[in-house]
Amino acid sequence: MAKEKNLTPRSEDFSSWYNELVLRSELADYSPVRGSMVIRPWGYTIWENMQRALDDMFKATGHENAYFPLLIPISFIEKEKEHVEGFKPELAIVTNAGGKELEDPLAIRPTSETIIMAMYAKWIQSYRDLPLLLNQWSNVVRWELRTRPFLRTSEFLWQEGHTAHASSGEAEEHTKLMLNVYRTFMEDWMAMPPVTGLKSDSEKFAGAVRSYSCEAMMQDNRALQSGTSHFLGQNFSKQFQLTFQTEKGNEEYAWNTSWGVSTRLVGGLVMTHGDDQGLVLPPKLSPVQVVIVPILKGEDHGPVLEKADAIKDALTAKGIRVKIDARDFMSPGNKYYEWERKGVPFRMEIGPKDMATGQVVLAKRMLFGEDSRKEFVPETEALATMENRLDEFQAQLLEAAKRRREDNSYRGIENLDELAEIIDTSGGYVFTGWSGDPAVEDIIKEKTKATLRCIPEEEFQSEKTPTRCIGGEKDSTMEVVWARAY
Amino acid sequence: MAKEKNLTPRSEDFSSWYNELVLRSELADYSPVRGSMVIRPWGYTIWENMQRALDDMFKATGHENAYFPLLIPISFIEKEKEHVEGFKPELAIVTNAGGKELEDPLAIRPTSETIIMAMYAKWIQSYRDLPLLLNQWSNVVRWELRTRPFLRTSEFLWQEGHTAHASSGEAEEHTKLMLNVYRTFMEDWMAMPPVTGLKSDSEKFAGAVRSYSCEAMMQDNRALQSGTSHFLGQNFSKQFQLTFQTEKGNEEYAWNTSWGVSTRLVGGLVMTHGDDQGLVLPPKLSPVQVVIVPILKGEDHGPVLEKADAIKDALTAKGIRVKIDARDFMSPGNKYYEWERKGVPFRMEIGPKDMATGQVVLAKRMLFGEDSRKEFVPETEALATMENRLDEFQAQLLEAAKRRREDNSYRGIENLDELAEIIDTSGGYVFTGWSGDPAVEDIIKEKTKATLRCIPEEEFQSEKTPTRCIGGEKDSTMEVVWARAY
Question: Topology of B290-388 in CATH?
Fold first, then answer.
């Protein structure tokens, strides 16, 4: 495995680079089942670390986890008019079970609003039962024709939050709260800073009143929609008779939200930080933060391995995730190569010579444009500084990703040809005015394959508010961001 | 909700008691989808706590997690002759997806040996790639005609471990290691001590060479098979061409194991510890270990709520899971009733009077046959002793369950009529000799509905080894355990 040829460089073919990297760093593998992938331990552990962090944030904002059925009667999905239009073409349908044809075929959940609202209608009677704040970790299936590991697969893993509230205002606040939870997670844990904002009507979730999203910029300057939060209004509660008695004794329909992120985030991590050598993982999410490679020369490996164990124990006691790679059939060089490809933030080499001098060799995973960072460090210093080094590494990744996003954002663009040229040459985020006319979205999509990513939240808006719609004929009523997207 | 009638007593109708308890303690609810249930937050949090403990044990024994596809080509399942016979009648089959009929229908996984072995064949080349020790947390579907929440549902959540080894001996050792992990988990965390042992050929997993199981005794003296570990030999590796190069350079088929526990364990917890008042939860798994009920009298609730917060913080700092129930629309009595039904180990009441005397009221969830245990305790003592009290409670539950299991085990039974009478009257575990003849299993099943639960491991065997087969005509070659089972 160590002797494989180099990855296709990103500059040559970003898409091939991505596919090769996912396979060779053992994040995932293709499966014999069309459109499905296998998530291998290295990729799954990253997902577990993401889950743990997100789950803590969900619980800190008052949510509990629950589990709803995989199989949903198709009649449920058909109840909400826009919802069924959005999802019916992608359904996988069970027609046979237990050796018999089913009278009512069942769909594998593409998302669970319908079955969850049916249960909420049973559980919620009074304003005292509100808000109801639940989350589910699960798999969903949306039949896709063109699939790519993590980014678009027929089956994927995700979490879906579903809440019910007594007022429209509270539900909309909650929608924004969860958008902000996602943004915080992406910045603080993934070092992948998104632009957040409202979706246009043509891009919103099928069945939502308003959808908000996190749009992260990948290294090829495309946008990855990496988390969405939806204000559903009463669209579902009316179809599922989800009513409650108000404090005043009236009967009203509840107000709902739903929000989700998926294993797509792992793909986002790859395309945000990876380089031509392989993955680069933010320390907070890396399955291994420090890999120790003992240099095993001569006959007696005992002392070096004991030293490696002692260092591992000392770092583990600080809450650092450490692995010792003591495989005796592989050269140190091939190990370095493998862990670099897997994106581990720090490597520590310990050999008999280093032991004699009380030193270790510390190598930081190279970041964009850096030279190799291999230094001799006294062992005590390496132990004392490792937490700081990891924090710094995490901060550097975020800083670099923010800078890249800003370097590739274009503001003050008022002309359709100018927009098209940017999209065609460098790509990136193009901020323009918009009248709200969906016809402009159609024109731009046809001309450039770019779509309206979002109406950005205030802090992302340009200092100078655009006055003309990019479509040319009307005044602008809002600023929007255009980009090609995954 | 608080005004519901009492549960049907266990002595009157154990099955109704179970169903009512599951619903009213809000562990789960029936769903509109036939054979599926909804796991509500109280039940799901218990499952999360189980997952966390088991996952730590799996990782401590060298396993990593991964994720394999939900949908499996039916041709895969058909490859292993016994496997397909066992599972085909229970398959749910997707025939349509993305608006088209599938050329090759896909089964929703009933278990994942086949798809995982297909991937292992791709990943494993050499003895250096072995052992491969993976686990998956997932949902599976087995179409069932008669379903009961947690115990038997068409969809359930579980973990399935799948390993590949270079030798038969190592694989069989691993099978037993994981059986022992399950047993340790059931004893130390669930306080549900199983009898462990080998399955007879007629009861083993479809496709296994040998199956081992944990058989826990419920309060109605039936057995619940609550965890299984299978030695698969080379049955699957031969069908999926899972070969490896040995150290000597030969090509050999790998040796496999698989093992699993499911949300069925939550049902086992209910039937092991619950009483006519509701659930009783072992502290290690209870979502809430101490519930604080502030007694809110008069106008100013501030001081009492502040005291409750301070006590919560002090207990939380000790790693204890605490909830304050400050609902202002419910009487303390109704709260006591609800938390008792939900099985919380300790309740603490704090009112203005208690604050004045520096006391709290501490009420332990009643155990079998105990009187109410409500005591006035100085606040400082309550804080200082809570960890011990929880440990004691956990130990008491295990002790009671062990005693119950032994009290309802019958040894030295040599006569079929005697066995039948025990099964018909009290139920329980009947230990007898057996010749190994499956005809005896058929006779006993027909006569008593009892089945051969396992050939118990040495420590569970009777002091006096039986000499006659319970079938009557042959000599005994091994001791076995009979019981009616879920």
Answer: Rossmann fold (3.40.50)
